[in-house]
Structures are given as structure tokens and as C-alpha cells.
Design brief:
Blueprint: E1 2-5, H1 9-21, E2 25-31, H2 38-42, E3 45-50, H3 61-71, E4 75-77, H4 87-95, E5 99-100, H5 105-112, H6 114-123, E6 131-132, H7 138-148, E7 152-156, E8 165-168, H8 174-189, E9 194-198, E10 203-212, E11 218-230, E12 233-239, H9 246-263, E13 268-276, E14 282-288, H10 295-302, H11 306-314, E15 331-338, E16 340-341, E17 347-348, E18 351-352, E19 356-357, E20 363-366, E21 373-374, E22 381-389, H12 392-405, E23 407-408, H13 415-421, H14 425-429
Parallel strand pairs: 1-2, 1-4, 2-3, 4-5
Antiparallel strand pairs: 6-9, 7-8, 7-9, 10-11, 10-13, 11-12, 12-15, 13-14, 15-22, 16-17, 18-21, 19-23, 20-22
Length: 451
């Protein structure tokens, strides 16, 4: 198998590592802005896609397939973001007689629509947040919001990543918020359809990792806590999710497996839930039909390689173990290190990476090396720092010690912000909701040095 990675940066390097360990050849595809990026030289082969503009490179189905033809790739791994949840791309890969490393396109289409996924969950007796998706008429949506009761959440039916979402506290704000959410969803996903739901006042964002093969076998690989978010963008994740009752945890895991079975899922994926921190009640949110950015924390507590599982499932292999064979050991945290300035509203930074120093005993999944250029063209995440411990507090302290030692010279990053973040009492206690950062005063930036 020769695997083309239709992605860039950290995730391309991550996939290349596993593919090479499995004895597979790899093909990196790149834009002009990434021609000197580490992932390009680390692959067996590389091919140019086009200019820096994602629409003419990483988001161009034609350019990716042309690179696959030219390089002799027999399989395509989409990574996350870009074309990873694009059903047209998945279908085009399969139609070109290549292996698509992901779930079948019809399942992606079913679960990629939050409206259809919600209906599937209801049919499978999985709890969903009270909401409305029967019409896209502004009048009907406004009436539904009044029936549901404020505050409500307007969210895009397609896509993810926090785009196309608005919280509305008052009926007078609904019309403007709806227009904003629909416009943002249309720009991001080409689909302006939305759902209106009751807004849970103290929501936790909890995920369940699933793995399924082409032979009907489905298992879960435990929970992840992803509630530490800023503007619906995750910043810090951990596994397993702390402070869940056995009833809630088992309910989440069973619901995730049931939904995978009901949809005919056949790859690695993630089922996301909202958990009411006040009651422990849980509600289906959505399914991500791809590898998640935060997958390393699950790998560290299970000892499994999720990329290898993806590749093996795509190659029609059966899951090599049953649910009873999966064991969970210890605790893991992941800090997403972004080239952003927290003191300037997390404004993205550009420039050349200077020295990098990472302590021993951690996992460092990085897009950059010394000399790498951070450009304005793509996502600002440059690395993920993942730390493990035999129990949660040890893992948290390990992350803190590692952040003390990490050095990334050049553009400002969020490493220092994360050092402050993990010492906040709700983080220490494992008692956070998605509103935590919105309700917390961020630290003042340090005073400039005296000349």
C-alpha cells in the first residue's frame, strides 16, 4: 500500500510515522507555502498541489487526485480538517479504485448532517437535546425557539470546529444571531442549514472514541474531556473524562456504540455528547467521521495506535480484539500549542521558528522544527504536548513541568497560557464546563522589559 496523506503539518507527520512503521510507502502533498515543511521531506515521495490558497491546493479534489495518479498512490488518508469529511472526495477516491482510509461515504453523509444524525440518534433511543430541525424558515425557527425556551443554541447542521454557532439569550436577539450563524455556516461548509436547540446552562463536552470494521464489529475506546474551549475551539483535552458517575460513563459508551451500529460505521471515529454538569444527564451532539486532533490522549491510556487501526480497517481487516480485551491505564492530558498571542485576543502569529527544546518523557506531535516558517495561510496550531501519568493529578503535574521546560523561540505561542491554565482550580479539580474560559479573567500580560 502506498498512502497519500491529503493533509499537512502535524497530522501529516503523525500519519507518516505510523505508515512507515507498518512498512508502507507514503506520499506527501503540499502547497507552495509548505514546500520546505518537515512533513514533505519525511514522506517517501512528495507532490506539489498548487499555490498557498487552500481552495487551490489542500481543498482541491482534482489536485489531490492528480497527485495520487502521478505518484502511484493506492490509498488516501485525509487526516482531519480540509477534505476529511467531504463525501464527494471520499466517493471520488473510491471511484478512482483507491482505498479510502475512512468510513464509507454514505455513512459520512448520514452522520455529517447534524439533522440526520440527530434523527438517527432518536430512532436508536439515544437522548438528544430538545430542539427543532424540521424547517429552515426564519419564522418557524423563531417560533421553535420560543417553544423550547431561552436560552437557545443555533448551530450549523454541517461541519464542525465551532463555526456556525450562536448562543441566544433573548428573543430580540434571535433574528440577527440566526442570520449570522447561517451566513457563517454557508461560508464554512457550503450549507446554511441550522438546528435550534435548548442551551444547557452548565455543559460539559465529552467524547467517546469508537472503532469499527467492515465486518460489523464495533467497540469504544473510552471517554475524553474536551470542555476547555475558547469560542468553541478546544484548547486542552484529557482522557479519561474525570468526575463522571459510572451510570453516565457507561451510558455514554453504550450510546456511542449503538449509534455506530445503527449507522453502519466502519472506521475510527468520535461520538460527541453534551453532559449536564448539574444533573449528569447526557445528550447526543454529533459524530466526527475522522481522526480527532486529540486522539493521542486515547492512545496513551489504551496503548493502541488509532492511525494503524484506521489503515487496517480500510484494508478490510477485522478488529484484532473485542471490547473485553480493551484496558484503560492511567491518565493523559494534551495541550494544543498555537502560534497565537493570548495577550492580544489570541491573535495568530507568523514568523520563523528559532530554537525548539522539548523535555524527555513526553509526547510531542509537532508541525514544525527549527527554521520552519509560520505563514498566515493555515491553522495556527503548531504542536501538541501530551503527558501521561498513572493517575490524573500526576499527569497534570507532568504537563505543568513539561510546559516549564518547553522552549519555542520565534512567534509568540500559547505555551505560557497553558501553564497558567492547568493551575486554575476548576482544571485541578476536573470540574470544568465549556463556559469556563468565558467566565474566567485571563492573566494580564507581563510588563515589557525596561530598557
Amino acid at each position: 500500500m502506498r498512502v497519500l496523506i491529503a493533509n499537512r503539518g502535524e497530522i501529516a507527520r503523525r500519519i507518516i510515522r505510523t505508515a512507515h512503521r507498518m512498512g508502507l510507502e507514503t506520499v506527501a502533498v503540499h502547497s507552495d507555502a509548505d514546500q520546505h515543511a518537515p512533513f514533505v521531506s519525511e514522506a517517501t515521495f512528495s507532490r506539489r498541489l498548487g499555490p498557498a490558497d487552500p481552495a487551490r491546493s489542500y481543498l482541491s479534489i482534482d489536485a489531490v487526485l492528480e497527485a495520487a495518479d502521478d505518484s502511484g498512490a493506492t490509498a488516501i488518508h485525509p487526516g482531519y480538517g480540509f477534505l476529511s469529511e467531504n463525501t464527494d472526495f471520499a466517493s471520488a477516491v473510491i471511484d478512482s479504485d483507491r482505498i479510502w482510509i475512512g468510513p464509507k461515504p454514505e455513512t459520512m453523509a448520514l452522520l455529517g448532517s447534524k439533522i440526520e444524525a440527530r434523527r438517527l440518534a432518536m430512532a436508536a433511543d439515544i437522548p438528544v437535546i430538545p430542539g427543532y430541525d424540521q424547517s429552515q424558515s426564519p419564522q418557524d425557527l423563531a417560533q421553535a425557539a420560543r417553544r423550547i425556551g431561552y436560552p437557545v443554541l443555533i448551530k450549523a447542521s454541517s461541519g464542525g470546529g465551532g463555526r456556525g454557532i450562536r448562543i441566544v439569550d433573548d428573543p430580540g436577539e434571535f433574528e440577527e444571531a440566526l442570520a449570522q450563524a447561517q451566513a457563517e455556516a454557508e461560508r464554512a461548509f457550503g450549507d446554511g442549514a441550522v438546528i435550534v436547540e435548548r442551551y444547557i446552562q452548565q455543559p460539559r463536552h465529552i467524547e467517546v472514541q469508537i472503532a469499527a470494521d467492515h465486518h460489523g464489529n464495533v467497540i469504544h475506546l473510552g471517554t475524553r474531556e474536551c470542555s476547555v474551549q475558547r469560542r468553541f475551539q478546544k484548547l486542552l483535552e484529557e482522557a479519561p473524562a474525570p468526575n463522571l458517575s459510572d451510570t453516565t460513563r457507561k451510558g455514554l459508551e453504550s450510546a456511542a456504540v449503538a449509534l455506530a451500529q445503527a449507522s453502519g460505521y466502519d472506521s475510527v471515529g468520535t461520538v460527541e455528547f453534551v453532559v449536564d454538569a448539574q444533573t449528569g444527564d447526557y445528550f447526543f451532539l454529533e459524530v466526527n467521521t475522522r481522526l480527532q486532533v486529540e486522539h493521542p490522549v486515547t492512545e496513551l491510556i489504551t496503548g493502541l495506535d488509532l492511525v494503524q487501526l484506521q489503515i487496517d480497517m480500510a484494508a478490510d481487516k477485522e478488529l484484532p480484539f473485542a471490547q473485553s480485551d480493551v484496558s484503560f491505564d492511567g491518565h493523559a492530558f494534551e495541550a494544543r500549542i498555537n502560534a497565537e498571542n493570548p495577550a492580544a485576543g489570541f491573535q495568530p502569529q507568523i514568523g520563523t521558528i528559532g530554537a525548539i527544546r522539548v523535555p524527555d518523557g513526553v509526547r510531542w506531535d509537532s508541525a514544525v522544527v527549527s527554521g520552519s516558517e509560520i505563514t498566515p495561510h493555515y491553522d495556527s496550531m503548531i504542536a501538541k504536548l501530551i503527558c501521561f501519568g498513572p493517575e490524573r493529578e500526576t499527569a497534570r503535574r507532568h504537563l505543568g513541568e513539561a510546559l516549564d521546560e518547553v522552549v519555542i523561540s520565534g512567534p509568540i505561542t500559547t505555551a505560557g497560557f497553558h501553564r497558567w491554565l492547568i493551575e486554575q482550580p476548576p482544571i485541578v479539580a476536573g470540574d470544568v464546563t465549556t463556559r469556563f474560559l468565558d467566565e474566567t479573567t485571563l492573566p494580564e500580560p507581563p510588563a515589557p522589559p525596561i530598557d
